[in-house]
């Protein structure tokens, strides 16, 4: 393949094409910088394959069954900075394969079979400017002591999903990795590979992922002690049942902490106090049944707090008094029947809090009072899905007119005998997304949404809709008024399911058949070709149209 007549050619993307085996140069272009030939069924690269694209900067060879990388194949693309070799079924890498790639900064080798033996120190030694290595799920079990001796500029090292249990990690995390900022050791079975000196040389580490490794809290405290500059720490699912009170005393700079999926029970008194700069905290699935009102007293800068899937039942009064910077609060599946109005300070408006998730809680909504703390006046996203709700009074969300996304799927909302059951929509003028699927609603009319001019996404599936003229009006409203039939989520089939012009998904607005339905709708040529869900019941009926199609 040649591009001699395209001297300004910068990028070629040929991914997902079955390319034949090539002898000699693949391309001839003196200007090409970016080449993507991922998933092209290439199983062989000859030594001249890249010989005539000398200034190539970015190369993606992922998802090709290459099996082996031989010496010389990259020797003529010395300007290369990014090389991706993910999912290539690699089992062998020549120790000299990267000899000429002195400018390489990013190397991805994830999801391969590099069980070895491989001379990793020789493989990485020539890549002196390397900043990012991804070896996730690559079959690596060990490294020589001097593996990264020449990679002093390495910033990110991802070793996740490799079994490193029988390897002394401290031998590779040596003084040569003093510039390392991010280290991922998740799913590495490293509980027996840790020692006090494991991370002692990584003094500039900013982000550490140890998730899905079983370890004791005492050992963890010792190995983390040198990492005083940590800003992100993930300890999800490490089988931690108890943490020392002074566990985080040395981590005053920590901004993100993930302790999810650990059976911590109720061990948080004063534990979080040293983390005054914390921005994100994930305590989901921690079997917490009680949080004292002092739990978050020092974490005043929290922006995201995740407490989902804990049997809390009741949140203590004054639990969130100082969290005035909170933007996202997740309380899904916490067995809550209500939110205490005194969770937040009465004297403050928590204007930063924009997202509240309460899915899968057995909420009880009073007909007279708001079921949400009135201090949350700037809510934009509210998730009340699967909360066993049968009715939402208008005044219950009267103070929350800024909501743009409302999720009510999986409740018991019904409107067959009560046309006002969705009346609360009229006080949500900024609403853009609404999910009322999987309820018990039978009647749906465009007039319900006349106070929601910004509505762009509406999910109605799995309700027992009556097949009357209102169903026809909804499709007309979407097509004519909103000028986008896809506003009804699920109405447009995916590309591989399109047949001719029958592009409407029959599951988007299914309805129950009725015997008689008004006057006939007139169709123009364009819309008559569309295959609406309701055509089988309405096309031959006698409905009045709200507008002539």
TrEMBL record:
UniProt KW keywords: Leucine-rich repeat, Repeat
UniProt key word Repeat: yes
First and last residue of the signal peptide: none
UniProt-listed SUPFAM superfamilies: L domain-like
UniProt cross-references to Pfam families, sorted A to Z: LRR_1 (PF00560), LRR_8 (PF13855)
Full protein name: Toll-like receptor 3
């Amino acid at each position: 393949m040649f591009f001699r007549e395209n001297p300004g050619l910068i990028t070629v993307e040929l991914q997902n094409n079955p390319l034949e085996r090539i002898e000699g140069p693949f391309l001839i272009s003196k200007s090409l910088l970016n080449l993507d030939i991922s998933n092209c069924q290439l199983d062989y690269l000859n030594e001249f394959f890249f010989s005539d694209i000398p200034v190539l900067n970015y190369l993606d060879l992922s998802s090709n069954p290459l099996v082996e990388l031989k010496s010389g194949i990259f020797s003529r693309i010395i300007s290369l900075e990014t090389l991706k070799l993910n999912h290539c079924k690699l089992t062998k890498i020549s120790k000299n394969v990267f000899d000429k790639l002195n400018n390489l900064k990013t190397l991805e080798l994830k999801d391969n079979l590099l069980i070895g033996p491989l001379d990793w120190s020789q493989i990485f030694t020539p890549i002196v400017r390397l900043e990012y290595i991804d070896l996730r799920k690559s079959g690596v079990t060990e490294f020589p002591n001097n593996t990264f001796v020449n990679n002093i500029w390495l910033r990110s090292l991802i070793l996740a999903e490799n079994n490193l249990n029988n390897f002394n990690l401290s031998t590779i995390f040596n003084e040569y990795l003093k510039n390392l900022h991010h280290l991922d050791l998740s799913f590495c079975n490293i509980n027996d590979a840790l020692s006090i000196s494991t991370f002692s040389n990584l003094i500039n580490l900013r982000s550490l992922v140890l998730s899905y490794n079983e370890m004791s809290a005492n050992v963890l405290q010792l190995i983390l002690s040198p990492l005083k500059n940590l800003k992100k720490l993930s300890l999800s699912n490490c089988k931690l049942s108890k943490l020392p009170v002074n566990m985080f005393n040395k981590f005053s700079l920590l901004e993100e902490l993930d302790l999810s999926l650990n059976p911590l029970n109720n061990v948080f008194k004063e534990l979080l106090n040293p983390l005054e700069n914390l921005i994100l905290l994930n305590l989901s699935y921690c079997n917490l049944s009680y949080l004292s009102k002092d739990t978050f007293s020092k974490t005043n800068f929290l922006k995201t707090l995740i407490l989902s899937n804990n049997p809390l039942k009741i949140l203590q009064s004054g639990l969130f008094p100082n969290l005035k910077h909170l933007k996202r609060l997740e309380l899904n599946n916490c067995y809550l029947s209500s939110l205490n109005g005194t969770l937040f300070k009465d004297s403050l408006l928590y204007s930063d809090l924009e997202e509240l998730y309460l899915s899968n809680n057995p909420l009880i909504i009073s007909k007279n009072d708001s079921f949400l703390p009135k201090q949350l006046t700037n809510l934009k996203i509210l998730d009340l899905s699967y909360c066993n709700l049968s009715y939402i009074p208008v005044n219950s969300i009267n103070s929350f007119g800024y909501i743009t996304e409302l999720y009510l799927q999986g409740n018991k909302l019904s409107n067959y005998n009560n046309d006002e059951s969705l009346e609360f929509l009229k006080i949500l003028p900024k609403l853009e997304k609404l999910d009322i699927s999987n309820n018990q609603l039978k009647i749906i009319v465009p007039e319900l949404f006349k106070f929601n001019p910004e509505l762009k996404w509406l999910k109605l599936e799995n309700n027992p809709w009556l097949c009357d003229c209102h169903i026809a009006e909804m499709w007309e409203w979407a097509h004519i008024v909103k000028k986008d039939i896809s506003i009804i989520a699920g109405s447009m089939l995916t590309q591989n399911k399109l047949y001719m012009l029958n592009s409407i998904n029959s599951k988007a607005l299914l309805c129950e058949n009725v015997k008689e339905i008004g006057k006939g709708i007139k169709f123009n040529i364009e819309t008559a070709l569309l295959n609406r869900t309701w055509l089988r019941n309405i096309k031959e009926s006698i409905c009045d149209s709200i507008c002539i199609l």
